[in-house]
Amino acid sequence: MAKRDKSGPSEGGEAALQGLREDLAQVLRPLVYLSGNLLSRVGVVVTTSSAVTLVVVYVSAFFGSFRPNPYVGILVFLILPGVFVLGLVLIPVGIIREFRRRRRLGALPSIYPTIDFSQRELRRTALFIAVMTAINVPLFAVASYRGTVYMDSVQFCGLTCHQVMAPEFTAYQRSPHARVACVDCHIGPGAPWFVRSKLSGSYQVLAVTFNLYPRPIPTPVHNLRPASETCEECHWPERFSGDKLVIRSKYADDEHNTASKTVLLMHIGGRNLDLTLVGIHGAHLGLVTYISTDEKRQQIPWVSHREPDGTIAEYASTENPPKPELLASGVRRLMDCMDCHNRPSHIFYLPETAVDREMAAGRISASLPFVHKVSVELLKKNYPTRQDAETDLPEALGEYYRKNHLSVYNSQQAEIEQAGRALVYIYEGNVFPAMNVTWGTYPNNLGHMDFPGCFRCHDGNHKTKGGKEITQDCNACHNLLAMDEADPKILHELAGGN
Ligand code: HEC
Ligand code: HEC
Ligand code: HEC
Ligand code: HEC
Ligand code: HEC
Ligand 5: which residue has its CA nearest to atom 36? Predict the structure, then answer.
């Protein structure tokens, strides 16, 4: 107090500042001097280059021009800061080592030189840092980009864990989404989901390494990102799709493989011009929640639906009524795209459907007697490995014709061989003994013939207290324009004939 009275507040402040400067110089001089070692210099370079990259990224992220894909995200937002910290740690470690080395050699100066850019040593250090930073920043950028492009690739996802992902990867390559990257559905944009998926991903890598993974891989993927953030990045949920003509070709098990067609007019719907929601899409999206009692979401005892007037209708199964404790604690799921389109990309068929499809495409010739029946029987047989199936299937088909239809065997060799290849193709897309994946392992919810699908709820047994039921009216979903007809009249009418 007395001191300040004598010299005045401003003078005292200046003196204190001068003192502080000197103290700082006392600390800084040895640091700067000792940091002229290789380790610290490397640290400085690593720190500054990652810092500059980070600043550029953060600024462009702030202005919205940088929307990283997930892998770039993890690199930029997780690994790069780690590199930055590593650099920071290297600097003092280098200084301490240098201090010890010089002390051992007795080479510590009694007075540290002042920080002065006229000194050669200091200029060289500064220049070294500047040059290395300039080289390192673009290097970092290119390296991160290159690495992540690879990690993002379908090859990485589908092939890195070859056997584990084989069923999904194979089916995917044959699906309408064969050109959509795995990460677009399984991870989606943005860093947070990427981190989540990588955390579970690291567990998955361990599981694969130590052979702990479940076979088959369970479905549904319970922590899959909501469709609103994946599918809807490409598909517009309220798009009006109107009615769509669906034609299914089938072949019977008789000698002539009698062909028939089922023609459905599917009421896909969407949002109408007058903004009302109509059809299959319009009836559910954002409106239906449900509780399921099994892992695969196949048993659904309770469903709610938001009616157009805003009230909520609750439907309970009369066959399998929900228990009160289930209603109290059960997890309610808001229905989204994946509850119907649960196999948009990994589509596995039953043998009958698969053979129908190959026959409709002409790869299994319907001119071969009983080929539908025999193909399905052969496909349903048990083959210990895929290699066995690859050799046995064509052989067994040829053998069947040699034994039972020798004239066909002699005259239609090419068709029989082609059919044999088609059987291998079907088998390889649907049966994976090493993963315990076989016919019907993964239910498809789009429909109601092979699996419960729509009829999990639309079974005529889900009713409100007032007795209103979830519709099972065939025409609510589709008009059945022809059912298993050899030559449906409607197709001629549509083609302009009669
Ligand atoms: C068009 C979107 C889409 C693409 C692309 C996609 N998946 Fe899937 N995947 C799904 C859906 C939907 C499920 C089932 C989720 C459910 O039922 O909850 C699934 C399930 C899986 C499963 C769990 C097992 C199963 O079959 O249900 C694995 C494993 C898998 N996918 C791997 C992959 C791999 C590997 C790729 C790339 C080669 C890929 N997925 C590409 C949408 C996609
Ligand atoms: C990256 C963009 C993209 C994403 C993400 C995506 N799709 Fe698609 N989807 C497409 C394209 C493109 C087509 C059309 C393919 C064609 O006709 O060859 C398509 C086709 C479809 C079809 C019609 C298939 C058919 O048999 O013709 C359905 C159904 C579908 N997608 C559902 C989904 C669902 C469900 C998801 C989320 C799990 C999803 N899509 C995610 C791009 C995408
Ligand atoms: C209630 C079940 C259900 C839900 C929920 C649902 N869909 Fe569909 N969707 C269908 C059915 C059924 C079809 C007709 C399939 C066929 O071709 O037989 C269809 C057809 C489609 C098609 C093909 C349309 C065309 O013009 O060929 C696309 C694309 C599609 N859905 C995308 C989606 C997306 C994206 C979502 C989520 C926003 C979604 N669907 C939700 C049942 C559903
Ligand atoms: C989780 C239960 C659930 C599943 C699964 C489900 N729906 Fe629905 N759906 C409902 C409820 C609830 C309603 C509203 C009550 C009603 O209109 O009958 C509804 C209504 C509809 C309607 C409107 C009916 C009308 O008369 O206006 C159509 C069409 C429809 N669903 C088609 C489908 C199709 C196609 C599938 C399968 C691809 C399917 N639903 C799967 C619960 C479900
Ligand atoms: C809740 C909606 C819904 C109801 C109700 C419904 N269906 Fe379907 N149906 C579908 C869907 C979705 C498909 C699958 C279309 C596809 O495979 O692309 C389908 C497919 C079919 C097929 C063709 C299957 C095939 O592979 O050959 C037939 C036949 C059929 N339905 C008959 C009926 C009959 C008969 C009724 C009335 C008792 C009925 N459906 C009620 C939604 C429904």
Answer: 474
Task: Check if 448 has its Cβ closer than 6 Å to any atom of ligand 5.
Answer: yes
The predicted structure's pLDDT at residue 471: 96
Whether the upstream peptide bond of residue 138 has omega within 30° of 0, thus cis, is: no
Determine the distance separating the centroid of ligand 2 and the alpha carbon of 40, expressed in angstroms.
53
| Res 6: pLDDT | 45
214-243 pLDDT tens trace: 788 888 877 777 888 889 889 987 788 889
How far is CA 479 from each of CA 245, 264, 265, 267, 473, rounded to the nearest angstrom? 10, 6, 5, 8, 10
pLDDT at 146: 64
Report pTM: 0.81
Pick the ligand that lies closest to the CA of residue 154: 1
* Amino acid 7: pLDDT: 45
Nearest to 346 by CA among 420, 434, 441: 441
- Pocket probe for ligand 5: among 247, 337, 356, 449, the residue whose CB has the most ligand atoms within 8 Å is 449
pLDDT under 70: residue ranges of the chain:
1-12, 61-62, 64-74, 77-78, 143-153, 155-162, 188-212, 498
